[in-house]
């Protein structure tokens, strides 16, 4: 029998529908794979074995009874630990939430459960989604399946590594500044940040509410479209949710896979290439552009001058919002509570002791930065200026989308770096997201498609690179059309999916 963990979600769905395997067998195969390799990869913080198998058995019984099921029914999935799951630990990678069991499900989790997707477990992440390497998790590092000494990207390194290591065919990530796309790029997986408001944020543990967006992490573009259609759409419990249906995403992916992009204009963003990008990353990027041209697209260069200030604006807006969102972790309501051992036990002193012990260094750094940027004397100089830059970036996008249907760039400037390499240098860490952050500031959707391998900066084995495609808000279908066209062109060049060449684990 074929190894069920090697199949895409779309192929698994067909296999289940044809009765060639049961969901219990598919789920069991993934749990066995987790048991075999997660000791090395550490993608999971919690494995939800019994509940996942119970869901699988239930789906099998319903299928046997002839019930009409969702296309992905019975296909297992992993969920980033920043998404709340009823009855299952949800720590957001932080000690401050250790032991907290949410009493409710996020809307997207409700949708997964209603459609019958067994939830394999919760994946590792940088604490409160702050980071680009998953090294800021309070629960240890996740390792890149391509090279266990390297980072899997972040903050959603656990979800990306789980999918790249064939521990899960599908995963959920969240992207505030790149945390779905950048891990996708460095692990050779597909990651999508939907249009802001396209997938409900109800039940996400918020980092920066105006930037956070949940989305799919998969091995193929079609799988992302299938998952995006399932989790997306209007949710009255999220006031920023778009009250409109999604554009047809699966249809766009299927059409794109036919490989005809004639009539499409692709804009290469001047500011998202060149200095700071590894030569191999740029070489793969230009090869991908050629493939798009061969598929009939017209490639033009567009300039977005305010993108040069995106990183600076992001690192004021994001900490400002995070400092407010994280104020609820006070030692009273959720998870950890630490009482001072010296002196009186007052509310303030419990809060200080709990936060001191429960938050890691990066979280403290950002809370301090955020409260400073919002303080009376500095608000206009920092937070106010950053919001103005945000408007300029939105205008740059509007002007660029008047010249091109989609914008493209490398997803991340470098291939996966070594664990520990950038841990003591916050600025170097922040620079990983130069190409992904503008989309969050403008609310537009983006996808990262694996587009080859390149030598790491210090040489050695080749590592995955990602190709980023951005579309106007609410035009997420364009990501799938262009992404699927690129994917099929690349795979016919390689003769197999990129991940087929990843080293064996276990
Ligand atoms: N790496 C960026 C940060 O540290 C983005 C994180 C994210 O998208 N959650 O903020």
UniProtKB/TrEMBL annotation:
Q: Alphabetically, which GO biological process terms does the record hold? A: translation
Query: Which EC number(s) are documented for this chain?
Result: 6.3.5.7
Supply the alphabetized keyword list.
ATP-binding, Ligase, Nucleotide-binding, Protein biosynthesis, Transferase
What single Pfam family name could you report for this chain, choosing any that match?
A: Amidase
Cross-referenced Gene3D superfamilies, in alphabetical order? Amidase signature (AS) domain (3.90.1300.10)
Q: Does the keyword rRNA-binding feature in the UniProt annotation?
A: no
Q: What is this protein called?
A: Glutamyl-tRNA(Gln) amidotransferase subunit A
Which InterPro entries does the record cross-reference, listed alphabetically? Amidase, Amidase_CS, Amidase_dom, AS_sf, GatA
Q: What class of enzyme is it?
A: ligase
Similarity field:
Belongs to the amidase family. GatA subfamily.
Q: How does it assemble?
A: Heterotrimer of A, B and C subunits.
**What is the gene name?**
gatA
What does the function comment of this entry state?
Answer: Allows the formation of correctly charged Gln-tRNA(Gln) through the transamidation of misacylated Glu-tRNA(Gln) in organisms which lack glutaminyl-tRNA synthetase. The reaction takes place in the presence of glutamine and ATP through an activated gamma-phospho-Glu-tRNA(Gln).
List each copy of the Amidase domain by range: 25-479
**Catalytic residues (positions):** 80, 155, 179
Q: Which Gene Ontology MF annotations are present?
A: ATP binding; glutaminyl-tRNA synthase (glutamine-hydrolyzing) activity; transferase activity
Naturally occurring in which organism (per UniProt): Krasilnikoviella flava
What's in the GO CC field? glutamyl-tRNA(Gln) amidotransferase complex
Q: Which residues form a coiled coil?
A: none
- Reactions performed catalytically: L-glutamyl-tRNA(Gln) + L-glutamine + ATP + H2O = L-glutaminyl-tRNA(Gln) + L-glutamate + ADP + phosphate + H(+)
